[in-house]
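Contributing new records

If you add data, match the layout below exactly. Sequence lines come first and carry their own label; structure lines follow with theirs. Keep one chain per record. Anything else will be rejected by the validation script.
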Amino acid sequence: MSTAGITVYVPRDSTALALGANEVAAAIVAEAGKRGQEITLVRNGSRGMFWLEPLVEVLTAAGRIGYGPVEPDDVAGLFDAGFLAGGQHRHALGLVEEIPYLKKQERLTFARVGITDPLSLEDYLAHEGYAGLRRALTLSSAEVVQEVLESGLRGRGGAAFPTGIKWKTVADTQAAQKYIVCNADEGDSGTFSDRMVMEDDPFMLIEGMTIAALAVGATRGYIYVRSEYPHAIVALNQAIVTANSQNYLGENILGSPHSFHLEVRKGAGAYICGEETALLESLEGKRGVVRAKPPLPAIEGLFGKPTVINNVISLASVPIILARGAAFYKNYGMGRSLGTLPMQLAGNIKYGGLVEKAFGVTLREMLLDFGGGTASGKSIRAVQVGGPLGPYLPESLFDTKLDYEAFAAVGGMLGHGGIVVFDDSVDMAKQARYAMEFCAVESCGKCTPCRIGSTRGVEVIDKIAAGQVHEIHLLRDLCDTMINGSLCAMGSMTPLPVLSALDHFPEDFASSAADKAA
């Protein structure tokens, strides 16, 4: 079979790069040259099946055949096996789209991720890119807002506030200048969906922000990216340059009267800057400290002007809603949790990666059907969903549906969709201490319950571990003060993992004390 024009895909996603994707790509190009075989190498995004990275794909008449995980030393053997024609090899995975982990998902937001070249506008346009913006340009601003309202889209950053209501507030507020701000300060443990969007499909985020600008009358936007994401920053900046050059950004977008200018800003590395008002302070060049509310950012946000501030996944969900309509999007999900949520499996998990599913799948299905149980082979003892401020859930709650209301009903939170798994070797008293210590380190310091409470919390947990079990009541009182007295979610939610550890795993606190006594 002639290999002329054979397309080979090697991801450029951070995870794949960390596992040697650049070296694999270079080896493939070198080996093809040595053998006189013509290939076209495309650096795509990751499919989100991280245990298979670097995942090499070859486009064949039957579809894209996958091989992974591939190391540079495997490349010569792949050529010997005829992998350019989909040949058999010990790393052969068959058709990538048929891999159960991927096939069982409902990929709406991540429909292009892993398929296209992230920096190719031509590729983006060929896969429904900018269809949402083109439709939005035919609607009035109010109609765009209404479409988002009807879709049922809620904030994917943790608070789950209806996106359309936030947009309507900004749209209805009169001001000479309005802003769109994307919160890309993805700092929760076990989360990487924002990073994958920015690295693997940046035009989707740009399109979502542009539609938001049309909807509310904003002309400037900022993407606030955490400093730990250098590849995302590079990808976004390159995509913005391309979008500007092709009139998808800038003045008179696609010949319309609408203008939108977009810039990337690098965060300073503070977890608190994931809180929207602290982020705005940082964006203005100040120290990232939480603002008191009201006024809401939608009325007085960036530089005191009306501001839409949404998470990456919230904004990235907008293009498909406008392209296919609100009815299409809200057909997925359950109750008030409509659409899909990209869940991220991390920690002690066999098959770590990204799973986009409609709301309603259970946590147990996510852990076992997709995650395959623990990497250690031991039983799962606890799962933390929703980042470092999320409660620890015991096995008895694994049948809870992944739905905002269902999780809230059992004292949990979905947050940004991060799932961190612990096997039966975990010490939950130490995990509770970690939650308090994390808050002590990351608190902005503005309010006393958070600033002082977290430090006292670490001290009290240390006393309990030293044998003073009677201090547990003091720990609970302290948590109550933090929950009800803190200015923002940092202080009010830090007690949640602590209390959940006390409630669901009390034996770990008693055993710590017993060990000390012995």
